[in-house]
Each structure stands twice: as structure tokens, then as C-alpha cells.
Amino acid sequence: MSRDHAMRAHAGFTLPALSDDTSAPHDEHRFILWNIAILLISALLLTMLSRDGKIDFALADLFFDHKGDEFPLRDLPILATYGHTWLKNLTTLFWLACMPLAIASFWYRPLYQWRSILFKFVIFAGCTAYVVQSLKSGSPHACPWDVTQFGGQAHWFPLFDMTGATSTDGRCWPGGHASGGFALVAIYFAARTTRPTLALSGLLLGLYLGCLMGLIQMMRGAHFLSHNLWSLWIVWAVCFALDRVWSAIAQRALGHHK
């Protein structure tokens, strides 16, 4: 039993397809089925959460001062500067730093074994950022601090209900800041078949940072809970789709070499 397998067995759980045994189609099929099932079920639950709005507003109300008619933590330096600007820059710099490393792997031998992981992470994480920002830039849904219930001028309306789309340009769904942390989940998809320990670490780091960055924005009144959860869903869905495409290309290339 490999060291990574022993660690996972000792932990008492197994993540699908984290094995470095690339000749295990059963594990790969299970990985695919689990992801499809989780994405479909979570999409249904998130749609219900987003359309109902009660939990979103109840949580946002915890950080809203009705007497002052404002979110008092909105401009608090520890949240606005360190929690928003600095964390955003940190995750962006990490992604940017991986780009030259991926390119350098073509001639710097110590990086050769990391080439696939580096390129997959750069591509997967970059695509998640592009998709989230594209959806956000065209979204009619407003941020908590902009809706009438919290002193703003915009009208809240359920997700996928376009009757209120003309009330505001919104541009607040899904949560962009949280997606920067969740994008590190791409490490899991990049390393899951070759370096399972790194994959698990990347998964936990991405979930932790995404949740932290999402919570910071909720405290500031910048996003509802559902905005951040949808960011995680989109990041995971994009990474899973790219993982399937990458695997198909790799299998085809392997077939040509045989």
C-alpha cells in the first residue's frame, strides 16, 4: 500500500479517484458518477435557496444595522483592505506565479514532473475565474447593500426570475471574491490522479479560502450566502468539465502512441 493510500485509509475516508493508479477505470467511473450526482443535487438545492431568499436575508440581516441603515462592517479595514483586497491579490499572485513555472518546466528538469499539474491548475483556475466574472458582469441580481430591504435602490428578485431584471444592472451574482479562493480547488483536479496528498490539500485549502472570503463579503453586505455557494458550484462544474476534456485528450494521445 502506498503512503498516500495508507494516509487516506488511516483518516477513515476515501475521495473518489484520488488514487495514483491511472489504470483503475472503476475508480474513474465512480469519480464521474459522484461528481454528476453531486452537481445535479446541489444545483437543485441552490436554486431553491436562491429563489426562496429567506436564509439569504436572515444571514445578511445579522450584519445590518437597522438604526444606522447600513452595513457597519462594510469599510472596516481588516475586512475591506486585508480580507478583500489583500486576499484577492494573494490568490491572484499565486495563480500568476504558476504560469512561468509551467512554462519553465519545458527546459528546467526539476519542474518536469510538475508540468501537467501546473498547466492543469493554471488553465482550470483561469477558466473558472473567466466564467464567474462573465456571469457576474451580465447578472441583473444586486448585492445586499444595494437592495431596498437594506437601504439601497435595487429590487431583489428570485434567481432565474427575469421579471425584475430591468430594475437594476446588479452585477453581483455569483460571488466574485469567494470564487478567487474556491479557484484553488483546481489543485485537486490537477493532482488527483498523480499526487493524491497534494490534491486533498488543495481541495481543503480552496474550500477554506473560498468560505473565508465569502464570509468576509457577507459581513460587509457585499454578497448573499447563495451568491458564494453558486461560485463554488460553478468553479467545481468548470473544473470537472475541463478534467473530462483533459482526460479524453490524454487517452487519445496515449492511444496514438501505442
From TrEMBL:
Keyword set, alphabetical order: Membrane, Transmembrane, Transmembrane helix
Record-linked InterPro entries: PAP2/HPO (IPR000326), PAP2/HPO_sf (IPR036938)
CDD domains according to UniProt: PAP2_like_6
TM helices/strands, residue ranges: 31-49, 90-108, 114-132, 198-218, 230-249
Highest taxon listed in the record's lineage: Bacteria
Record-annotated Phosphatidic acid phosphatase type 2/haloperoxidase domain positions: 124-242
Protein name, per record: Phosphoesterase
Highest classification ranks of the organism: Bacteria, Pseudomonadati, Pseudomonadota, Betaproteobacteria, Burkholderiales
